[in-house]
């Protein structure tokens, strides 16, 4: 059997940026041979309809390359685009299937996770392969850096718009500069601090950040519009409508606030025997997930889920992404033990 390191390298070397996952889907399907499987859009389900199965879930897509698209292996790490987020998790899923077979374990390799929620294919997969909704639990193999992470934050993205009046830059008094109009708001945003919110003893840090800015049409024109994206991460027990209202309140100085994307949070599920067994087997710390994962969509489908996978979240989406080789075998052996 191909070892885990070779499998990660093989996966990394098949490009699969968001929107171009089909080649990787087909390669995984071919490798898994005669196992029962179903292609749904650019995603792949492996398994048979068995009530109470455990889902292993991982996304096929990566962010765009940042000069690190090919795999490279040294004594301790595998380097390359997607190595930690999350082709190392996909490799573990493949090896678990090859060891245990698709009986009480089902695997969902899905597309579109790194883009906006409407393009995420996990929900369409759960809708079409509806037998998955009778699963007892799910493990999302996002990188967790040798911890078990419960729940996940919700996320809101909004266009925050400041409106001015264009004019010739030689006569700025004839216009109203939309960029400088936002100065007070940007200063206030810079001073915001993370807010700790505790659920069942787990801390989630709520944060609100400006992530993009667009304004102006030419170097000699006073900008008439300035558009900022504000990204808000909120705790799992918050009401999304209330958090949208809070974002509007924080951005009250703007001329217009338009929510462009809202992804629900994932519930904190600690009582399932599988998750307790995983904690006992690994001795891993239990943490709240600082970020969004598809634990949220699985929660909404009524399937308890946790995050547990190889890799370090701090390296996700960064140039020079890599995964510790020792993490691969640790996660793989831990999952095998509890799934058996």
Describe this structure in words.
- The chain has 340 residues and is α+β, with helices and mostly antiparallel strands.
- It has two domains: 4-152 and 266-339, 3-Layer(aba) Sandwich (Aminopeptidase); 154-263, Alpha-Beta Plaits.
- The protein has ten helices and 18 strands.
- It has an eight-stranded mixed beta sheet, with helices on both faces. A five-stranded antiparallel beta sheet has the order 11-12-14-9-15.
- A hairpin with a 3-residue loop joins strand 4 (72-73) and strand 5.
- Helix 1 packs across helix 3 (83-100), helix 3 (83-100) runs parallel beside helix 10 and helix 8 crosses helix 10 (325-339).
- The chain is globular and about 75 Å long.
- The mean pLDDT is 95.
Outline:
Helices cover 29% and strands 27% of the residues. It has 340 residues and is of the alpha+beta class. It folds into two domains: 4-152 and 266-339, Aminopeptidase; 154-263, 2-Layer Sandwich (Alpha-Beta Plaits).
Widest β-sheet, arrangement of strands: 1-2-6-3-7-17-8-16
CATH topology category name of the largest domain = Aminopeptidase
Helix/sheet category: alpha+beta
Shape: globular
Mean pLDDT: 95
Number of strands: 18
How far apart are the termini?
Answer: 19 Å
The CATH homologous superfamily of the largest domain is termed Zn peptidases
Strand content: 25-35%
Q: Indicate the low-confidence ranges by residue numbers.
A: none
Rg value: 22 Å
What is the CATH architecture annotation of the largest domain? 3-Layer(aba) Sandwich
**Largest sheet properties:** 8 strands, mixed
CATH class annotation of the largest domain: Alpha Beta
Number of domains: 2
The helix count comes to 10
The helix content is 25-40%
Order of helices and strands: HHEEEEEHEHEEEEHHEEEEHEHEHEEH
């Amino acid at each position: 059997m191909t070892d885990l390191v070779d499998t990660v390298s093989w996966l990394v070397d098949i490009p699969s940026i968001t929107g171009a996952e089909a080649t990787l889907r087909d390669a995984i399907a071919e490798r898994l041979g005669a196992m029962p499987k179903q292609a749904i859009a650019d995603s792949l389900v492996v398994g048979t309809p068995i009530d109470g199965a455990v889902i292993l879930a991982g996304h096929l897509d990566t962010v765009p390359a940042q000069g690190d698209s090919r795999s490279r292996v040294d004594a301790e790490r595998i380097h390359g685009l997607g190595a930690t987020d999350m082709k190392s998790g996909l490799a573990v899923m493949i090896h678990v299937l090859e060891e245990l077979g698709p009986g009480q374990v089902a695997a969902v390799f899905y597309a579109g996770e790194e883009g906006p929620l409407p393009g995420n294919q996990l929900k369409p997969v759960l809708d079409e392969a509806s037998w998955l909704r009778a699963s007892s639990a799910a493990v999302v193999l996002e990188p967790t850096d040798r911890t078990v992470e419960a729940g996940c934050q919700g996320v809101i993205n909004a266009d925050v718009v400041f409106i001015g009046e264009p004019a010739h830059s030689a006569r700025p008094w004839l216009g109203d500069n939309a960029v400088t109009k936002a100065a007070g708001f940007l200063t206030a945003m810079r001073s915001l601090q993370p807010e700790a919110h505790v659920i069942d003893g787990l801390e989630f840090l709520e944060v609100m950040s400006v992530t993009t800015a667009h304004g102006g049409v030419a170097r000699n024109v006073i900008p008439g519009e300035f558009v900022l994206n504000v990204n808000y991460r909120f705790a799992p027990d918050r009401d999304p409508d209330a958090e949208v209202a809070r974002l509007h309140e924080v951005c009250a100085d703007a001329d217009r606030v338009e929510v462009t994307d809202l992804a629900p949070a994932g519930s904190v599920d600690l009582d399932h025997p599988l998750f307790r067994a995983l904690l006992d087997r690994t001795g891993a710390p239990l943490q709240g997930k600082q970020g969004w994962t598809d634990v949220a969509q699985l929660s909404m489908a009524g399937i308890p889920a946790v995050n547990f996978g190889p890799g370090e979240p701090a390296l996700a989406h960064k140039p020079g992404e890599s995964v510790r080789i020792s993490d691969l075998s640790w996660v793989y052996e831990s999952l095998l033990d509890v799934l058996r």
